[in-house]
Amino acid sequence: MDYFQAASAAPPGWRRYTLEDVARLPNQYLATVPVAEREAAERGDAEAAERLRRALFWPMVYELEPQLWDAVSQAEPIHPGILAKLEVEGRRVLEVAAGSGRLTVYLCPRADELVCVEPSAGLRRILVTRCPSADIRAGFAQALPVEDGWAELTVCCASIQPDPRVVLELERVTAPDGILMLISPENPDWFQARGWERLTFDPSDVVLNPHDPELEKIVGPLDPPHELVWRERRHRR
Ligand SMILES: C[S@@+](CC[C@H](N)C(=O)[O-])C[C@H]1O[C@@H](n2cnc3c(N)ncnc32)[C@H](O)[C@@H]1O
To answer: What whole-number distance in Å separates Cα of residue 124 and Cα of residue 98?
Structure first.
């Protein structure tokens, strides 16, 4: 999803964040904004300013209101059919974009070793309370703080965009005979078209956990992760 698509798709709660909030985001997020858009917003162009606040809604949730993302993720569990497909037992597992631990709580007791990478300091603070034994590191998927070939399973939930550079980085940190499993990535079609296996489960099987109805007024309808794309890491020639 590009910047303009993200602005169009912003959930109803985008108005809770201001341009000052946008300015508090890490550069990694601000770098995704077209230069002309930032300049127009800075000049006082109201439409550009609104697009900026809309497009960066989710990063502002993760960075500025981590407890809000935590409430969303705890309300919408991952489809159990996906968890049953994850090959975690006895493996060195890397979880990218771990958030506050919705998937991590499943990985932690099963993995041989578990490294979690997550950019938001607020989400990492929640994550460590849920999974104190995990090795939790700050970082982005574009440059993972993990050595080459470390992970026997690299997994990620509801976070990976269809970006060939990110897929290369996931491959770099995965062992030559390791597996990459992406739960509900953005645009599963993109991965399927490039040879990834795809499994789709029925989201209506998932029972949402009790939650404050105000949540959906902010983030829109809840959508439990129910897609899995996966493949073996390809050996480099
Ligand atoms: C939709 S949440 C999913 C969190 C968690 N995986 C879960 O399923 O609950 C997206 C997560 O990706 C993180 N994130 C955003 N951009 C990222 C990037 N470029 N690299 C790694 N993580 C990123 C956010 O901080 C947030 O924790």
So the answer is: 8
